[in-house]
Amino acid sequence: MILEMKVPSPGESITEVEIATWLVKDGDYVEKDQAIAEVDSDKATLELPAEAAGIITLKAEEGDAVQVGQVVCLIDTEGKNDAAPKEEAAKEEAPKAETKAAPAPEKPKETAPVAEKTYASGTPSPAAKKVLAEKNIDAASVTGTGKDGRITQDDAQNAVPSMGTPTGGNRGSERKKLSMLRRKVAERLVSAKNESAMLTTFNEVNMTPINKLRNEYKEAFKAKHGGVTLGYMSFFTKAVTRALQMYPDVNSMIDGDYKIAYDFCDISVAVSGPKGLMVPVVRNAENLTFRGIEAEIKRLAIRARDGQITVDDMTGGTFTISNGGVFGSMLSTPIINPPQSGILGMHNIIERPIAVNGKVEIHPMMYLALSYDHRIIDGKESVGFLVAIKEGLESPAELLMDNNIQKALEL
């Protein structure tokens, strides 16, 4: 029986995908549910599993754009796996091979005699030696044309100091088509820059209070919640959802001549995956506890790392948090994730001297950057929003935990 494998729909509104990589070759035997290809959509890269076991015949090439529902391969379910019998036969033949007589040693091949270098090879004549000294050239870098390879005066005068040459190194290049996902990301980033009035405002936050809380409670938190760690993202997500409720315009977006406002906070969190940056969404983050936020971010990060992230995981989102600090970024201007109106950039934590009550103290400091769409968010709101995040992070027990740390951390 010949089974036609068609491209399944990876998500709503997606009508076309691209064959990124075939994981099997034409004529291979495949098992049921074995990953046979990676397909790119404009939102994610997904694996295509075999629907049955059998011999596969490919009907599309890598890089081909195929419609959802199009046949991309055939599977002959009556085909047999020939690899196993061959392996068994090889095992049976192996002992016989041991009784064969050893082949007679081959006679060494005769090689042409190589002319030996004489004492004169590479030796400059007195006149040539003087010229080379004046030009500060090593005689070893000059090829002699005189008798027995001797360096003549002409050789020395024609020699050029070795400073490297413009064509002396590798000059290869590679032309490779971008994946459909990467092309869509590029399109959206250019669109965000061209179609929004994007501005960025900055502030800094003293991370000492959060560091103290984490150092005091992280071990108990991890033991209580089955290995879930108390990271920075739960504090930042809590601070963001609090600020979004204080400044609802930041949690809105433009749709033509209309403004769409949301009464929930779906926070997109940028995470790094094997196919590049992914932005899965933490749904209704305003209702999640510290443990709930950390567990959900961990789950989504693992799915992104393992290439299991889906379109549904990344659809929606009303605001984005991007943590460039994990890669060492000190300051940046993050680009809005359209159609959202704002994105918060976190950066690395550096100990710096700051003034505290008229005295200079060393504290772990982080720069924050808020990029926002000025068409819908005014400067006063953007600054107030970022200040509200700063206040929440610098007074976490009071503003993010209602002065009840044990209850907030569910200890």
Write the layout of secondary structure elements.
Blueprint: E1 2-6, E2 16-22, E3 29-30, E4 35-40, E5 45-49, E6 54-58, E7 65-67, E8 71-76, H1 83-97, H2 126-134, H3 153-158, H4 180-195, E9 198-206, H5 208-224, H6 232-246, E10 252-255, E11 258-261, E12 267-269, E13 271-273, E14 276-278, E15 281-282, H7 290-305, H8 311-314, E16 319-323, E17 342-346, E18 349-356, E19 359-373, H9 379-394, H10 396-399, H11 405-408
Parallel strand pairs: 12-16, 16-17
Antiparallel strand pairs: 1-8, 2-4, 2-7, 3-6, 4-5, 6-8, 9-19, 10-11, 12-15, 13-14, 17-19, 18-19
Helix pairs in contact: 6-7, 6-9
Describe the fold and architecture.
- With 411 residues, this protein is of the alpha+beta class.
- It has two domains: 2-76, Beta Barrel (OB fold (Dihydrolipoamide Acetyltransferase, E2P)); 185-408, Chloramphenicol Acetyltransferase.
- Helix content is 30%, strand content 24%.
- A hairpin with a 2-residue loop joins strand 18 and strand 19 (359-373).
- Helix 6 (232-246) packs across helix 7 (290-305).
What keyword list fits this structure?
four-stranded antiparallel sheet; 30% helix; Chloramphenicol Acetyltransferase; seven-stranded mixed sheet; OB fold (Dihydrolipoamide Acetyltransferase, E2P); 411 residues; 11 helices; alpha+beta
